[in-house]
Amino acid sequence: MEDGIIILGAGGHGVVLLDALMECQQKILGFVDPNKDLHGKTIMGYKVLGDDSILESYDSSKVGLVNGVGSTHEMSLRKSIFVKFKGLGYHFATIVHPSAIISKSVKLAEGVQVLAGCVIQVNASIGENTIINTKTSVDHDCVIGSHIHLAPGVTVSGNVTIKESVHVGTGACIIQDINIGSKCLIGAGSVVIKDVNDGAKYLSIGQSLS
Asked: Are 146 and 109 in contact (CB under 8 A)?
């Protein structure tokens, strides 16, 4: 990534990532975004360079990418972007905001984004392309899979396992020793007190809608 980093997506999540990269004093080349109305505009001092095709002018071995696509209920678009550009030889930068508190024993995979005020405790692992959003807490021995979004203010207690492609909404709380299957939606403010099967929607205490 000697030439710098390009952010894929110039929406709200992309701008939050820009701020984190600036705090980390990373070299930033700008944004790409499919919205033509944004092309050529400047956001916090950095230009929207064009759409994804602009990446063809860069050497994939020298430019890092940051996945600026967030999620509000499911993760398929964010995952597809990650898979597409990995297949083209690009590497996704892992971002850790300087205000985050992370145990030295934590394992962060490629493309993980740990944002402001987060805490990740001892022996936790975070899978590739996963967002640990603002002020989220992940406690000891948790296994958080790939392509997951833990939205702002989520609390994950110890020894929780979350499989791939799960969205956990703002302020949700997951008690200890819970297993959550793949492609689930955990609603904002939910308190998860029992295991959640693959593909389920968990909307409130004790309520699961498949």
From this structure: yes
